[in-house]
Structures are given as C-alpha cells and as structure tokens.
Amino acid sequence: MEKLNITGGNPLFGEIAVCGAKNAAVAIIPAALLVNGVCIIENVPDIKDVRLIIEMLVQLGARVTYINDTTISVDSTRLKTHIAPVELASKMRASYYLLGALLGRLNKAQVALPGGCNFGVRPIDLHEKGFRALGATVEITDGIVYVNADHLTGDNVFLDTTSVGATINIMLAAVLADGKTVIENAAKEPHIVDVANFLNAMGAKVRGAGTDVIRITGVKEMTGGSYSIIPDQIEAGTFMLLAAASGGDVLVRNIIPKHMDCLVSKLEEMGVNITEYDDSIRISRTGELRGTSVRTMPYPGFPTDLQPQMVALLSTVKGRSTVIEDVWDNRFQYVAELLKMDADITVNGKRAEIQGKKLRGALVQATDLRAGAAMIIAGVAAEGVTQIGCPHYIDRGYTDIERRLRSIGVKIERVFEED
Ligand code: EPU
Predict the structure, then answer these.
(1) Scanning 19, 265, 325, 417, which has the fewest C-beta atoms within 10 Å of its C-beta?
(2) pLDDT tens for residues 176-216?
(3) Mutate which of 118, 161, 185, 262 to test ligand 1's pocket (most atoms within 8 Å of Cβ)?
(4) Which of 224, 239, 259 delimits the end of a domain?
(5) CATH code, 99
C-alpha cells in the first residue's frame, strides 16, 4: 500500500510555483479535437487526469507529442473514431468534454458516463439540454452516452443551474455549428475564460466568457495555433491555505492574484498577513488566527474545490467557524478522516460547525482529490506523524506533490508498504 507520511508542527519558508490549471487542461486538450490542424498547448500540468485524457485522444486518432515536460502538440487532422475508450472514460469526470468536442467535429460521439470524485449525484442533464438545443439527439444506454446530429445549428441555451462542465461542453459543441449560440447563466470560472481564449486562438469566435452570457458565432473550421494554460487557481489556493496552517513565510509564485480575491479576503479576515505582487502572493503568519464563516459558490464566490482545505485550516485555528457547501450535495465525507486527527467538527447536511484545536497525527485516507489536499494541510499543522492512504487521488490533480512541498520545508515522504 502506498502512503504519504507527513511530520507536522513546523513552520514553512520559501517559494513554491503553481502549475497549469487542471480543470482548464482537461477541457482544452479535448477541445483540440475540434481543430483540423496542430495545436501547441503550453503549461500542461503533469498529473494523472491529464495523462488519461491524452491517452483517450490518442485512441481517438489524434497524434499527441510531448515537446517538453509541460508542452504538447496535438494533431487532430485524422481522427479515426467517435467512440471513446470505455474504461478510460469512466475513470474521470472530464471525459464528458469528449462529447462536446466530438459532436462539434464529427457530429457524433459515444462516451461512457463520466467517473471522478463522488460528491453525491453528478447529473449531466444540462450538457444534454445544450446538445439538444443545437440539434443533436442524446441517448444514454447501459452507462454509455450517445449523441448524434445531422447538422448542428446555434440556438439559445439557458442553464438552470450554473454549471462549469455544461458551459464548456456547449461552447465546444457550438464553435463549429452554423449560426449563433447564446449560453445564458453561464459559469464564470477562470478556466471557462481559458477554454474560450484557447478556442479563439485556434480560430473560433467566442465572446463574453467570464460573464454570465457567452455568445458563440460558428466558424467553418479551426486550423490551429499555440496557447498557454493559466495557472491553477485551486492549486494556488491549496498552497496558500497550507502556508496559513503551518505558519512561517511562503511566496506562492505563478498566480493570477485576481483569481484569489475571495480567498485572500477570507484569510485576511482570519488574521493571515498577505502581500500581493503582479504574479505572486506572500503568506505569513505572526499571531494566532481566528475562525470565520465560509459559503461555497460559483466563481467569483468561494470555490467548492477549496472547501476541504479550508475546513482543514479552520480545524486548527482558535474559535468557532461555519462552512456551508452550496455547490455539491455531499462534499463532507472527508470530515470523518479529520475526526481521526482529533478535529472537532459537526456536520449537518450542507453545514459544518468547526471548533478549532490542536490536531494530532493519525492514519487517514485521501477520500478524493481535494480531500487528500486537506489531509496534507491538517498533517502539516498537526503534532506528530500523519499517514495519508490512497495518495493516488492527490496525484490526479497535483504535479509531483512531495518534491514541491519539500522545497518549502514540508517533511513529507512517499512510502510503499506490503499489504
Ligand atoms: N449540475 C446539474 N446538471 C448538470 C451539471 C451540473 O444539476 O448537467 C449541478 C451539479 O450537480 C452541481 C452544480 O451543478 O450541483 C455544479 O456542477 P458543475 O457542472 O459546475 O461541476 P463539474 O463541471 O462537474 C467542475 C470541476 C469540479 C468542481 C465543479 C464546481 C472539472 C473537471 N471539475 O465539475 O472540480 O468542483 O466544477 O466548480 O472541471 C476538482 O477539481 O476537484 C473538482 C471536483
């Protein structure tokens, strides 16, 4: 069995750079299927989910070549099938972007229902609504989604719930459709803007990304170009929360500070010292921190993907805190793991009440990607040794995590033990 062992209780010092955004990369790489030519994509994070999506593109007939550690070339000139490999597709959430991309390029797609982290029901009805509005049929049989169209024509789509995945998938399906598509109540996350910028760099006409109305004018063909993925807002936030939990003085580099506004304001409210530079943020802590209240929301609100890491920090600071999860129905499963470290947290539906205290190291599990990041934060703040099982979840979204954390002083090692 593989584990990450962390010895906690030491302040952290130094600099750590943020990699390219996972949730942008897992959409931009499939988006390259729309391009009848070569896309050069830079700042690609070296994580498991990216390797999986690249493998799926290769099996669909795209030629993917690594130019260096973080730059790939994708040539989708000669796709050979619209059927995504079932086993790979069912392993990750973002495989649903193959639906929009293949539908847009080939007018048909066949992709297994997506897997990924389990936060309760994760429907794709809004993706379906968008594809149907553009003229496609959608059928789901035995866990496989089939989408087909004779012809795609732009239309208006109103998203009943703000959905990142549906917003991106409808953009992908619409860029080569005839006429205009308007997505209303669109999600505004930084990676929505990044995907739109990528599509435009390849020849598409997408306007309004980053607002709640996105307008797409279909083009006949996209022919290729170069694009660099934005830094990962969630990885940046994870490192900031880690530095706040450990104390010390850490410079988090390669950040877009605007993306961090909501987190910065919360951390300042708690007593963390923050200095923003053009593309980095310094976090230091001199005194004790105070508890606070947090409610997750779509961007620019507090990101649900930083909720577990925030709860880990709040478990260690003085006073009471409240965290309300308003995006997912069931994203507090990992709390059971923090309780093993002596945390004082009571969960009632979508609400967690936290009484901060000193945590102590324990054997815990990474129950999903961000839950795993939360265990690292708790482990660094705790006294003694924390052993984190199932670190493969963490590897889905964080590049070379132990080497990078060691560079700021985290005492972390990966161990392999016989079962
Ligand atoms: N929803 C629907 N119908 C749909 C789609 C979504 O009702 O057709 C609901 C969901 O049930 C949820 C809400 O809308 O309550 C938001 O879901 P969204 O579609 O925005 O989530 P997603 O696209 O499946 C992405 C990220 C998640 C992140 C969410 C919210 C990717 C690959 N995943 O998921 O990231 O939590 O947006 O910001 O981009 C992670 O990185 O750890 C992660 C889980």
Answers:
(1) 417
(2) 999 999 999 999 999 999 999 999 999 999 999 999 999 99
(3) 161
(4) 224
(5) 3.65.10.10
The predicted-structure confidence for 332-387, as pLDDT tens digits, reads as follows 999 999 999 999 999 999 999 999 999 999 999 999 999 999 999 999 999 999 99
Domain check: are 276 and 148 in the same one? no
Q: Which residues, 6+ apart, have CB-to-CB distance to 216 below 8 Å? A: 154, 171, 174, 175, 177, 180, 181, 182, 183, 204, 205, 206, 207
Instruction: For ligand 1, say whether the CB of 305 is within 6 Å of any of its atoms.
Output: yes
Which of 22, 23, 192 should be mutated for ligand 1, with most atoms under 8 A from CB?
23
> 335: domain range?
2-19+231-416
Tally of domains within the chain: 2
One domain, residues 236 and 360 = yes
In terms of domains, do 135 and 175 share one?
Answer: yes
Looking from the CA of residue 298, the nearest atom of ligand 1 is: 38
- Angle formed at CA 259 by CA 257 and CA 262, multiple of 5 degrees: 100
Report the nearest atom of ligand 1 relative to the CA of 127: 8
Residue 5: its H or E element:
strand 2-7
Q: Is the CB of 176 under 6 A from ligand 1?
A: no
Of ligand 1's listed atoms, the one at least distance from the Cα of 303 is: 38
